[in-house]
C-alpha cells in the first residue's frame, strides 16, 4: 500500500532534478534573456532519461483540471490520435516519471514530441513557480 508514497517520492525527485536542470539552463548564454516558460521547456528537453525507474501506482496521478485541456493551443486542432498520444505521454510523466515519458516520446513524431514538451512544461510551470524555481 505504499505505492502512492513511492509515486510522490519519484515525482519529487523528478521536480528536484528538473529544478537543477532549470538552473543549468539559466547559465547558458543563449538562455539569459529567455522567458521562464522557454527555460522550463529546454530543461525538460535536456532532462536525463532514467533507465530503471520504479513503477508507480496506476491511479496515483494528481487530479488534473478537466475543464482545461492540457494540450498546447497549436495541438488543439490535431487529429484525435495525435492528441491521445500527447495525453498518454503526459500520463506516463505523472505516473512513471519524466524520464520514462521522455524515453517513450522518442518513438513519436517530432510534432508529438514538441507538443508533449510544451504540455508538460505548462503542467509543471505552476508547481515550479510555487517552489520558487521559476518566476
Defining key terms:
135 residues; globular; 5 helices; mainly alpha; 0% strand; single chain
Biggest β-sheet, characterized? none
**Cα-based radius of gyration, to the nearest Å:** 15 Å
Number of domains: 1
Structural class estimated from helices and strands: mainly alpha
Termini distance? 37 Å
In one word, what is the shape? globular
Give a verbal description of the structure.
With 135 residues, the protein is mainly α. It has one domain. 61% of the residues lie in helices and 0% in strands. It has five helices and no strands. It has helices at residues 3-27, 36-46, 80-96, 98-105, 110-130. Helix 2 crosses helix 5 (110-130). The chain is globular. It starts with a helix and ends in a 5-residue tail after the last helix. 33% of the residues are buried. Mean pLDDT is 80; it is low at 50-67.
SSE topology sketch:
Layout: H1 3-27, H2 36-46, H3 80-96, H4 98-105, H5 110-130
Provide a compact summary of the structure.
By secondary structure, the protein is mainly alpha-helical. The chain is built from 5 helices and no strands.
Amino acid at each position: 500500500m505504499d505505492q502512492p508514497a513511492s509515486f510522490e517520492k519519484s515525482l519529487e525527485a523528478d521536480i528536484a532534478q528538473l529544478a537543477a536542470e532549470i538552473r543549468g539552463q539559466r547559465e547558458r548564454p543563449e538562455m539569459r534573456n529567455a522567458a521562464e516558460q522557454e527555460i522550463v521547456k529546454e530543461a525538460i528537453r535536456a532532462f536525463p532519461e532514467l533507465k530503471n525507474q520504479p513503477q508507480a501506482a496506476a491511479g496515483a496521478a494528481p487530479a488534473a483540471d478537466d475543464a482545461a485541456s492540457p494540450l498546447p493551443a497549436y495541438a488543439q486542432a490535431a487529429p484525435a490520435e495525435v492528441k491521445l498520444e500527447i495525453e498518454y505521454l503526459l500520463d506516463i510523466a505523472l505516473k512513471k516519471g519524466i524520464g520514462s515519458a521522455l524515453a517513450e516520446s522518442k518513438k513519436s513524431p517530432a510534432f508529438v514530441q514538441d507538443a508533449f514538451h510544451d504540455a508538460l512544461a505548462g503542467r509543471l510551470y505552476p508547481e515550479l513557480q510555487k517552489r520558487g524555481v521559476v518566476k
